[in-house]
Design goal:
- The protein folds into 3 domains: 227 residues, Beta-galactosidase, Chain A, domain 5; 299 residues, Glycosyltransferase; 77 residues, Golgi alpha-mannosidase II (Immunoglobulin-like).
- It is 30% helix and 24% strand.
- The strands form 8 sheets. Strands 3-8-9-10-11-18-15-14-13 form a 9-stranded antiparallel β-sheet. It has a 7-stranded antiparallel β-sheet with strand order 4-5-6-7-12-17-16. A 7-stranded antiparallel β-sheet has the order 19-28-29-30-35-32-33, covered by helices on one side.
- Helix 10 runs antiparallel to helix 12, helix 17 packs antiparallel against helix 18 and helix 17 packs parallel to helix 19.
- This is Glycoside hydrolase N-terminal domain-containing protein.
- GO terms for molecular function: hydrolase activity.
């Protein structure tokens, strides 16, 4: 088979893969033209044989700050536009002034097992004001209307992941039209290029529209503008002003703006530039000038020819995307349109679909989380609504963190920068919430935040009174260090980690029944443990997830404090507190307990999509088949009891769980279920349903975990390789400890590989069979403490070849 990948320099390469494409189906074999086309097309392409009829069929482009959904229409092209700072409402302090006075009573009610009373009091006094946060909102649409007949032929619409360019081609009235769209991070504009194979054949009108309060007008001879303001919400007036500009530059023909309509007539080719700006400067300041932002980017991009814009965009994008290549095998199914491949429900006969899904996740992260720009929210950057599901916020009891699971292992640490900016903001607003609602130092964030960086509990007490969202986010700062060894960034991030630890050292309570240190009040996210007074209650003290998160938080703080030689006194306090946290326990059904108490009945048998008490299995490694086999067995039992139900993101989490349990068949089963039409839209967006992007990122992470794991001070190659991928390769995946790895396998086992050591640290390498390790052709000295394990020292910048032992 032919596969496409990249060298580390980002140059596209083509080579022979490990499988020969023997999985031809009778239907494809009967269409040799389609099958032949699959051999020459770029397999890292989503493609379709018709225009998008719905939003979940449109193709996303983005550069972090800007996003667009491209429908690929013929008579009308719709570009649905987003700018990542358009939030309803305005700067707001959500903290409840009544919370601190109510806190002791809430805690006492929890100690007395009066859960409903505690939860009711939390609903009344402890929730933010208002109790709902603001939604992320759409900017609007730009519609391009083309005159001509309704008939067209030879249609193809695609998204090339290797270039981050969408293309639509078709023949209409005897003329072949080609339209390309991309979002440029270097130039901060969306670029549309329309060409035809007949001179003077490009004619269209372009106009903005928006569901927001807005106006349109001409903004120059060849430019139109949309000006608007974000919506009101929860009694807060919309304060984010925005402007979008569209400017056409044509070769041949004429261009003019007539009111809010851009008119292009008789051109040979047209480049349309779309720029957007908002008044949002920070979560505290919306006093910016959106017109100045939009015009600055548009003016700069207008001075560059299309070829330069495209070249800069592709070079910038490939610098990130081109670091990783993956080959899981192929079949004639690659000749089918992407929506048909998903509809077939046959991942076993289409292994390249899994590779496409993996790389699509990387594409989406690059496209929705870049600087300048804000962190990827529940929908990345793509949203067509004023009232999206779950407000398209940042849900930090799983979803926001899941967005960034693939960032480091899939070699995209730069995409974590907007998340780090979010954490810095939350540490500021969360310090106020810590004082106001807990009388504590440090900072806290609960289960949701928005553009105004709300950190108080929101929604309902059943969901919102969970204080460890900020703690989990802090562990992404530590993960960055584990992968990169970047001590400068660790020093920069240390105050954020320290502030979270300070909060918990101030607020952890001694459980009067057990003597353990616990959070109170809290809950195991979105799961109830009792019916009390006819209502489901979740409020509790010391749920398992909290204890696991804090165990890692305190541990990370201790290590970072030691490395940086900072906060020595506080380091000892954290060490002592860590030793007093509730250990992870096994319950009466052989499961990991979700709470301190081994609750019976419906609680133990919950089928919730949330499996928060397995946080210690993934993303942590407190539960490990090798190091804690009893807990690993209990984790497996937990997954069996939880069942198959779950949203797209929940299925994605389960891929990672089963991979960590080294169970390839079960991990692959969840991946197969994730790629069914009920969970993956025609454009490969994850479906909760509705669309929620964390499933895409969690799925990419899960595939990585099947191929490479690097927790517990070792690097494990092919730890959960499914039988469906007997031969393949990857290059550029990252492991903790500063290692970059290329690998080829055959017959389900390592064949050969290459390990680059950035930091020169000792490496414990685990494989199913013994391997030899050489540097410059010479054997590397190492210890072999058990079969399949070799431990050896590396040097900074060293490159080590791995091969199966003879």
């Amino acid at each position: 088979m032919v596969t496409h990948g990249y060298t580390r320099r980002g140059v596209l390469t083509t080579g022979l893969g490990a499988a020969a494409g023997s999985l031809l189906t009778s239907g494809l074999a009967a269409d040799p033209a389609r099958a032949a086309r699959s051999a020459t097309d770029n397999p890292l392409t989503l493609w379709y044989g018709k225009p998008a009829a719905a939003w979940l069929e449109a193709l996303p482009v983005g550069c972090g700050r800007l996003g667009a959904m491209v429908f690929g229409g013929v008579a009308t092209e719709r570009l649905q536009l987003n700018e990542d700072s358009i939030w309803a409402g305005g700067p707001h302090n959500y903290d409840s002034p009544e919370a601190l006075a109510a806190l002791p009573q809430i805690r006492q009610l929890v100690w007395e097992d009066k859960w409903q009373a505690a939860q009711n009091l939390a609903d009344q006094k402890f929730l933010g004001r208002p109790s709902e946060q603001a939604p992320y909102q759409v900017l609007g649409d730009l519609a391009l209307t083309f005159p001509g007949s309704a008939e067209f032929t030879e249609y193809r619409r695609e998204l090339d992941l290797t270039r981050a360019v969408t293309t639509v081609t078709y023949v209409r009235d005897g003329v072949r039209h080609t339209r390309e769209v991309f979002a440029s991070n270097p130039d901060q504009v969306i670029v549309v290029r329309h060409t035809a194979d007949k001179p003077g054949a490009v004619t269209f009108q372009a106009a903005f529209s928006s569901a927001q309060s807005s106006t349109t007008a001409a903004a120059g001879k060849a430019t139109i503008a949309l000006d608007g303001v974000s919506g009101d919400t929860q009694g807060m007036q919309g304060e984010v002003r925005f402007q979008a500009l569209a400017r056409a530059e044509a070769k041949g023909g004429t261009v003019r703006a007539d009111g809010g309509t851009l008119i292009v007539e008789g051109a040979d080719e047209v480049t349309l530039l779309i720029s957007m700006g908002s008044s949002y400067r920070s979560f505290k300041d919306v006093g910016g000038d959106p017109a100045q932002v939009a015009e600055r980017h548009l003016g700069r991009a207008s001075r560059r020819p299309y070829e330069v814009l495209l070249r800069k965009h592709v070079r910038d994008y490939q610098r990130l995307f081109g670091r990783v290549a993956i080959d899981l095998g192929t079949s004639a199914a690659v000749a089918l349109p992407t929506d048909e491949r998903i509809a077939r429900k046959q991942l076993d006969t289409d292994p390249q679909l899994a590779a496409l899904y993996f790389q699509y996740g990387r594409y989406l992260l690059i496209s929705s989380s870049r600087s300048p720009g804000y962190a990827a929210n529940l929908q990345g950057v793509w949203n067509d609504s004023l009232t999206p599901a779950w407000e398209s916020k940042y849900t930090i009891n799983i979803n926001c963190e899941m967005n960034y699971w693939p960032a480091a292992p899939a070699n995209l640490t730069e995409c974590m920068e907007p998340l780090f900016d979010l954490i810095k903001d939350l540490a500021e607003s969360g310090a106020r919430t810590a004082r106001t609602q807990y009388g504590a130092g440090g900072w806290v964030a609960h289960h949701n935040t928005d553009g105004w960086r709300g950190t108080a509990p929101v929604d309902f007490a059943f969901y919102g009174v969970w204080p460890t969202g900020g703690a989990w986010l802090c562990l992404t700062l530590w993960e960055h260090y584990l992968y990169t060894g970047d001590e400068r960034r660790l020093r920069e991030h240390f105050p954020l980690i320290k502030g979270s630890v300070e909060f918990f050292l101030d607020t952890l309570q001694t459980d009067p029944r057990t003597g353990y240190l616990v959070t109170n009040p809290s809950h195991s996210p979105e799961v109830g443990h009792h019916e009390d007074g006819g209502e489901n209650v979740s409020i509790c003290a010391g749920p398992t997830m909290d204890m696991q998160i804090l165990r890692d938080l305190f541990g990370a703080f201790e290590e970072a404090s030691t490395i940086l030689r900072l906060a020595e006194d506080m380091r000892e306090r954290a060490r002592q507190a860590r030793a007093r946290l509730v250990p992870t326990q096994v319950g009466h059904l052989g499961q990991i307990q979700e709470w301190q108490e081994d609750y019976r009945g419906d609680a133990a048998l919950s089928r919730s999509r949330h499996i928060s008490h397995l946080w210690g299995l993934f993303p942590s490694h407190q539960i490990d088949p090798r190091l804690t086999p009893d807990l690993a067995t209990a984790a497996r039992r937990t997954l069996e009891l939880r069942g198959e139900a779950g949203a797209g993101w929940s299925l994605a989490w389960k891929i990672n769980f089963w991979a960590r349990l080294l169970d390839a068949p079960e991990a692959y089963k969840r991946l197969s279920n994730l790629l069914l039409p009920a969970r993956t839209a025609p454009n490969m967006f994850d479906l909760h349903p509705p669309f929620q992007i964390d499933g895409n990122f969690g799925g990419t992470s899960g595939i990585t975990e099947m191929l490479l794991q690097s927790h517990g001070d070792q690097v494990h190659l092919l730890p959960a390789l499914p039988a469906a991928w007997p031969a393949g390769s990857f290059s550029g995946l990252r492991a903790r400890g500063g290692f970059e790895i290329d690998l080829e396998w055959s017959g389900g086992a390592v064949l050969r590989g290459k390990i680059c050591s950035d930091l020169g640290r000792k490496l414990t390498l685990r494989t199913a069979k013994d391997v030899t390790v050489t540097e410059h052709g010479r054997p590397v000295k190492g210890e072999r403490p058990e079969p399949g394990v070799i431990v050896f020292n590396t040097r900074r910048g060293g490159v080590y070849d791995v091969a199966v032992s003879a």
